[in-house]
Design a protein that fits this description.
alpha/beta, two-stranded antiparallel sheet
């Protein structure tokens, strides 16, 4: 049985996005994004989202059976590998689409890529969503394609983004995968779990 991990996208309209999208941004990442080659999507989203996306990406890479089973949900380009190179213009296009409003620019490519992925899955393979299921913004599209094979970490319920990111990094350090449950019929909201203990300093430093 293979597990394919789908990582929810980082926001391209927040404060950190403004730091690299604004005219004259001089950070190394902003300069790379202005070049024709661009920068890897996973690196960009890690900058935009911080601990949460860093945890998702590290976890997926640690527990996927092969690299191509780690895919990132994007606002306009469906499912893409985290090593996909993106430019400033691509990110600006991402920022113009609000995935929460059910835009066809978001749903159409996601649906097409999800169907392509589903066609190549084995009977026992599962698709793990590393993202929120509290809203229907991508859950509806993915559930319609993957049905009961779409799962998520049960430990995500009740946690905020930072807590989820920290939890995932702890799992990578401990080499212990989380338990997954089907999205269909799952409890989407719950009580906040106890606060996680601090991350080992070496794990924190690795993401700085």
């Amino acid at each position: 049985m293979a597990s394919v991990f789908l990582l929810s996208p980082a926001s391209c309209s927040g404060l950190r996005a403004h730091m690299i999208l604004r005219p004259g941004a001089a950070s190394l990442l902003a300069c790379r994004l202005r070049e024709p080659i661009g920068a890897p999507l996973g690196e960009v989203y890690t900058f935009l989202s911080g601990l949460y996306f860093r945890g998702k990406l590290a976890y997926a890479r640690a527990f996927a059976d092969r690299p191509e089973h780690v895919l990132v949900i994007t606002p306009t380009a469906g499912l893409r590998p985290p090593d996909t190179l993106v430019t400033l213009d691509v990110l600006r296009g991402f920022a113009r689409v609000d995935i929460a409003d059910g835009s066809a620019r978001f749903r159409r490519p996601l649906l097409a890529d999800a169907r392509t992925l589903a066609a190549g899955l084995g009977a026992d393979d599962e698709v793990i969503l590393l993202g929120s299921i509290a809203s229907p913004k991508y859950v509806d599209v993915l559930s319609g394609v993957f049905g009961p094979r779409l799962k998520f970490p049960a430990a995500f319920v009740g946690r905020g983004d930072m807590s989820r990111g920290g939890l995932l990094l702890r799992c990578v350090t401990a080499r212990t995968a989380l338990d997954y449950v089907p999205v269909a019929g799952a409890t989407r909201r719950g009580a906040r779990p106890p606060k996680l203990p601090p991350l080992p300093r070496r794990v924190v430093q690795a993401g700085e």
